[in-house]
Amino acid sequence: MAKAKKLFIKTYGCQMNVYDSERMAEALGGSGYESTSRADEADMILLNTCHIREKAAEKIYSELGRMRDLKDAKPDLKIGVAGCVAQAEGQEIMRRMPLVDLVVGPQSYHRLPAMEARVQAGEKALDTDFPEEDKFEKLKARPKMARAPAAFLTVQEGCDKFCAFCVVPYTRGAEVSRPVSRIMDEARDLVERGVREITLLGQNVNAYHGRGEGGDYSLARLIEALSDIDGLQRIRYMTSHPNDMGDDLIAAHGKCAKLMPYLHLPVQSGSDRILKRMNRSHTADSYIKLIERVRAARPDILFSGDFIVGFPEETEADFQATLDLIRAVGYGQAYSFKYSPRPGTPAAERPQVGEDEMTDRLRRLQALLTDQQRDIQNAMIGRELDVLFERPGRMAGQMVGKSPYLHAVHVVAPEAKPGQIARVRIIRSATNSLEGELV
Questions:
Q1: Same domain flag for 337 and 418
Q2: Are 362 and 417 in the same domain?
Q3: Long-range pairs of 211-215 with CB within 8 A, sequence gap ≥ 24
Q4: Taking burial as the number of CB atoms within 10 A of a residue's CB, which of 67, 161, 308, 402 is the most buried?
Q5: Distance in angstroms (rounded) separating the CA atoms of residues 302 and 284
Q6: What CATH number is attached to the domain comprising 339?
C-alpha cells in the first residue's frame, strides 16, 4: 500500500476560503493526500489566498520566500498558490517565484487532481479560468468522516455590485447560485456526519436565486427547505448586501426557529456622500430603516457590520456620520479596517486620506464599537441561552460552545460532548467571550 502524501493548506481571508480549503483537501484526497498541520512535513503546500486587504500579493510573495528553505531541504516538495491572489496575479506569481509549481484560481480548484498529476510529471500548472462547468458538480463527494458540529456551506459565489473599493467581481466573477438539490444533498451529508449548525456562504449570499423543484428559490425559501432537515438545528448566513434583504428574508428571521438571531450586514460608512462614492447604492437612512424592519421581525437579533475608515476623500464630517450610524444601530460585533487601495478598482485612483488620519479615525471607531460590544455582552449576564458545544476548553472539564448570537461560551460541563446543545446561564462576560453554567 502506497504511503500517504501529506498536504498542508494555509488559508487566508474569509469563511468562503475556509470552505474552499476543505474542498481542495477533499479533491486531493483522491490523489493520495492526507492533511497535516505542519508545513515542514508536507509533500504539498497550498496557500489559499485573499485579495481584499492592502499588499495582499506582496504578503504572499514574502510567505513564499520563507518557503525556500523547505524546498531546498525537500526538493520533491510541491508548492501551490490558490484563491483570489492566484486569480489576479497567476502569471506574475509563476514569473517571480520559480519555486511555485501550481497556481489555481477559486473557480478552478476542482481541476486540482489533474494539475497535481502534471506537477508530479515535472510540469508547471496554471489555471485561472472561469470554467463553464460547475466546480461543485465536478468535485468528488465528501469522504464519509466525522465533522465538527459547525460547518460552512457555499451556496452562492461572485458579486455584481462593483463597489468602488472591492476586487471580488474581478477575482470571483459574476453572481452564480448553486442549484437547490446539490445544496440540500451536501447539507444532509454534513448532518449525517455530525454537523448541527450550517452557515450558508456567499460573497453576496442574500442575492441567492437557485433553481429548485417548482422554480427559483430565494435565500429565504432555501433556508425554509433546509430547516426541514432532521438533525440540523441551527442555520446562519453571511455575507449580505443591504439591497438584497427582501421581505421574505426579513420575515424568515421571525418565522424560522432554526435561523439564528444574528445578522452580519455590512454598511461600510454612515455618510451618504461616501456611500455614493463607494457605489453602495443605499443610504445611511435606508440602512437604518432596514435594521428597524429586521428588529421588528426578530426583536432579540444581534447585528454585526463592516466599516471602512479613511475611504478616499472622506472628511471628518463623513467620519462623524459613520459614528452616528453606529450609535443608532448598536452593534454586538463588527469588523473595521483602514481603507486599502486595490489596484484596478476605481477608488484606488482617487485622492487618498493620510495614514495618520486614518489611524486616528480607526482608533476612535473601534473604541465606540468595543463599548457597544461590551455593553451587549454584559446585558447577557443572567440570561439563559442554548449553547452548541464544539470542543473542549483549556481547563479540565470545560467545554467551549457557541451562543445563538455567535459568542464563544465557556462552560464547566465534564459530561458534555461536541455537538450537544445545552441550556446555559451566562454568569460572566470577558473580551470576545462569555462564561456560563449549566442550568
A1: no
A2: no
A3: 211/177, 211/179, 211/180, 212/179, 212/180, 212/181, 213/180, 213/181
A4: 308
A5: 19
A6: 3.80.30.20
The burial of 69, by beta-carbon neighbours within 10 Å (0-12 exposed, 13-18 middle, 19 or more buried), is given as exposed
Please give the chain's pLDDT, 439 residues, in tens: 567 899 999 998 778 888 889 888 888 987 889 999 999 999 999 999 887 666 677 888 899 999 999 999 999 999 999 988 888 888 889 999 999 999 998 888 888 999 999 999 999 999 987 766 666 666 655 555 668 899 999 999 889 999 999 888 888 888 999 999 999 999 999 999 999 999 999 999 999 999 998 899 999 999 999 999 999 999 999 999 999 999 999 999 999 999 999 999 999 999 999 999 999 999 999 999 999 999 999 999 999 999 999 999 999 999 999 999 999 999 999 999 999 888 789 999 999 999 999 999 999 999 999 999 999 999 999 999 999 999 999 889 999 999 999 999 999 999 999 999 999 999 999 988 999 999 9
Residues 369, 402: one domain? no
Overall number of domains in the chain: 3
Parallel, antiparallel, or unpaired for β 398-402 and 384-392? antiparallel
Q: Is the peptide bond before 239 cis (omega within 30 degrees of 0)?
A: yes
The contacts found for 406-410 with CB under 8 angstroms, 24 or more apart, are 406/236, 406/260, 406/262, 406/302, 406/304, 406/333, 407/377, 407/380, 407/432, 407/433, 407/434, 408/432, 408/433, 408/434, 409/385, 409/433, 409/434, 409/435, 409/436, 410/434, 410/435, 410/436
The span from the CA of 47 to the CA of 81, in Å, is 5
Give the separation between CA 179 and CA 316, rounded to whole angstroms: 46
Q: How many CA atoms lie less than 13 Å away from 106 in the CB half-sphere?
A: 32
Cell of 403: 451562543
Beta-bridge partners for 197: 150, 234
Q: Is 355 exposed, middle or buried (0-12, 13-18, 19+ CB in 10 A)?
A: exposed
The rounded distance, in Å, linking the Cα atoms of 348 and 284 is 23
416 lies in which domain range?
Answer: 384-438
Can you give the pTM of this predicted structure? 0.82
Residue 368 burial class via C-beta count within 10 angstroms: exposed 0-12, middle 13-18, buried 19 and up = middle
Helix 56-65 with 84-96: angle, nearest 10 deg: 50
